[in-house]
Each structure stands twice: as C-alpha cells, then as structure tokens.
Specification:
single chain, 4-stranded mixed sheet, 2,3-Dihydroxybiphenyl 1,2-Dioxygenase, domain 1, about 15% helix, 8 strands, alpha/beta, 2 helices
Length: about 130
C-alpha cells in the first residue's frame, strides 16, 4: 500500500482562471501558489489540498461523471457563515440541511457552475489525530 496525504488536488476547466480562483479565495481563503497564463494553482492555508483552475472554453462547469467535490468544515456552527460567503462571492446555494443530527451541509454552485459541498462530519475512526 502506498502512503499518501490522501486525495490532494483537483483541476477545473474554466474560461477565466482569475475570476474562478477569486470565488475560492473569497469563500475558503485559498492562496494562489503558482500562476501562469493558462492556470492558477491554489491551496488552502494549513492544508495540503490544491485546486488548479485551467483555462479552457466549452465544457466548463459540467460535472460529468464526478457529481461534486467538497470541503469539510472544522466547526458545524460555520455552516451559515459558509452559505453567506458563497453568495457574497457570486455563488448560489442549491440545497442546505443536515445529513443527520450534528452534520450540517450545503451544496452550492461556484461562479462557473461546479457543484461544491460544504459540510461538517463528526470525527471518524480514521481521521488524523
């Protein structure tokens, strides 16, 4: 078995890399760690995740066989602030509720139409210490 840091990056095709990055910068505080004419690589401070915004025309915002991707909150009380941050950053809320007591969630569309889940999950036995 390979030892990894888990799934760490996702690349999104977008028509305007700076506009798309701006949504995630506003909502999640992501920081651009590399920029070129064709893409922006962004990372959440304190995490090992990376979102890459690749310049492309056409098929942007379509999820295809990937239904959505998500960001796990550290505090369940932040779900309402997440909803406000999404709308303030130009996104839209598709659905909001609780999977079960103590596990709030929301599904939102970013500026390009990608479906993003923001949720809190109670600790699992395989979470890092």
């Amino acid at each position: 078995m390979l030892r990894t840091f888990g799934l760490t990056h996702l690349a999104l095709r977008v028509p305007n890399v700076e506009r798309s990055f701006g949504f995630y910068e506003s909502v999640f505080g992501m920081v651009a760690v590399y920029r070129s004419e064709e893409f922006v690589q962004a990372q959440t401070p304190g995490a090992r995740d990376v979102l890459v915004f690749e310049r492309a025309e056409g098929q942007t915002g379509r999820t295809g066989s990937v239904a959505h991707f998500g960001f796990r909150l550290t505090d369940p009380g932040d779900i309402d602030a997440a909803a406000k941050a999404v709308t303030a950053a130009g996104g839209s809320i598709e659905e909001q509720g609780e999977f079960c007591p103590g596990e709030p969630y929301l599904f939102a569309r970013d500026r390009d139409g990608y479906l993003v889940e923001i949720w809190y999950e109670l600790p699992t036995p395989v979470d890092p210490a």
